Every structure is written in C-alpha cells, then in structure tokens.
Amino acid sequence: AYPHRVWLVRGNHEDRAINAKYGFEEACLEQFGAQLGAKAFDYFQDAFSQLPIACLVAGRVLCVHGGIGCGKWALNDLRALRRPLSGETLMSKELRWVRNILWSDPIEDDTKELGPGAAAVAGLHTGHRGSAHSGSVLFGWDVTKIFCARNGLDMIVRSHQTKDEGLGFDVMHGGQLMRVFTARDYEGAGNDGAVLLITSQGDDPCSQELSVRAQVLRSVRKARVEASPAARQATSK
User: What span, in angstroms and rounded, lies between the C-alpha atoms of 220 and 186?
Assistant: First the structure.
C-alpha cells in the first residue's frame, strides 16, 4: 500500500452509461473535439473496465466503493473475476453481486426510515437508488458481521455517501464498517473530508493489531461560518 503502491478502486461512476448521462462524454467532446474527444472517452472507458473492484489492506480490511450487498460472496469470488469488466458485462444477472459492491449502502445504525424496531436495521432492504441502478440494496449490521466472519476480515471500508455537515467519516455496524468521504464541501454540503491511516505493529501486518485513524480536512464552509461575526458573538455569550 501507500507509499509504495496506490490502488485505484472502481466506483459506480466508472461506467459508460453513467459517464454519458452525467456529462463526462460531453466534456470530452467539448475539450478535444468530436473525433479526438470520442477516442478519449473510449480510452477512459477501457481504463475504467480494468480497475479492480476492491482492495485488501493487510489481509484484514476490505476497501470497496459502495458496500457488500447481500454479503453472500467470498473474497475468492472477487479474485476470480476476469477483467476487463464493461458496463454491459456488469449488467448481467450473474454479476448482480458485483454491481452491489459498486452501488449498495449500509443501513444506518439508528435509522428510522425503514420502520421501527430491530428488523429495520438488520438484513437486506431495497435500496433507494432504484431499479435504474440494477436493484441496489441496503445491508444491515448483521450482514456486515457475518460477511467479515466468513472471510476473516476485521473491517469494511467504503465511500459512496456523504452527509450534510458531516465529519467525512463514520464508524458503523459495531465498528466493523467505516464510511470515508474525501471530497470536502461536496456539492455545497458543508462536509469535512477525510482519509484513513491504517497502521500495524511488527513485521507481519496480518498477525498484528491494526490501528485505523481518521485524518480530517476541515470544511471551508464550516470554517467561514464559524469565523463570521455572528458566530463569534454567539460563542462569547
């Protein structure tokens, strides 16, 4: 891992249809012209299709973009995936579990949106991202716990979501899942950005205790609000 290697993990927007819908194809054409822009767009898609779906840190921390979906797959299933993986290939019925690695979301530990009681925060629920994104799911703490136990993992690290005014990271599902979001002030949300520093003691990281520490980059929007005269006056009262 860093600083010797940097792994770029594929996300839900590394996809031809998404890039065409949300303006990346248009940007290529505007920047490079019709002929060269079309070639550049195709080259980007070729690169995206070669990106790994996940990476494993110290043999115990699995990093994905979205989540684990149903969790009924194993790390060896990921290792067996053959690249390139085009968007058309990912839309196949057999690879729905891979699409959910890109699109699924964890259920918040204290959510009330799915109904009252423990059943609302456990198991699988229909995702809010809709059928257009291949039936993405929401997965509960129990799915995370069982998946980690079956695969010998300590933690899942994922991104894919930010919170308004958030810290840039959240610890969820009994400490076995962390959400990290690096882009601060994303779409005006006033969120901090964060990265995770994972360290271990000793020469063999797979047999040692791991330390996971968030490093936070403060939101510019938050800083400006807190530095405003009104905020200073309220603090002094």
Answer: 11
